[in-house]
Amino acid sequence: MIEAFVLVVVKPGTEEKVYNALAGEKHIKEIYRVYGEYDIILRVEVENIGELDRFHDEILRRISNIEMTETLIASSYRG
């Protein structure tokens, strides 16, 4: 299982539209509206990198109000 955090920048004033477009997507476990450089943070769980690629291509890139994303793949401190 891969856990990733996706930092999202949206067109001004479209945060709620983007939230509604993403809500209920099976790979998204949490959605946060945040202040600062990014507008939304997603916690995403996928089985593998290929599934993460599909999530980006088939979900995120099809939402026209998303201007930019940055994906951080989580790692563990366990040895």
UniProtKB/TrEMBL annotation:
Q: Which residues form the Transcription regulator AsnC/Lrp ligand binding domain?
A: 6-74
InterPro entries noted in UniProt: Dimeric_a/b-barrel, Tscrpt_reg_AsnC/Lrp_C
Reading the lineage from the top rank, the first entry is Archaea
Please identify the protein, giving its name as recorded: Predicted transcription regulator, Lrp/AsnC family
Provide the taxonomic classification.
Answer: Archaea, Methanobacteriati, Methanobacteriota, Thermococci, Thermococcales
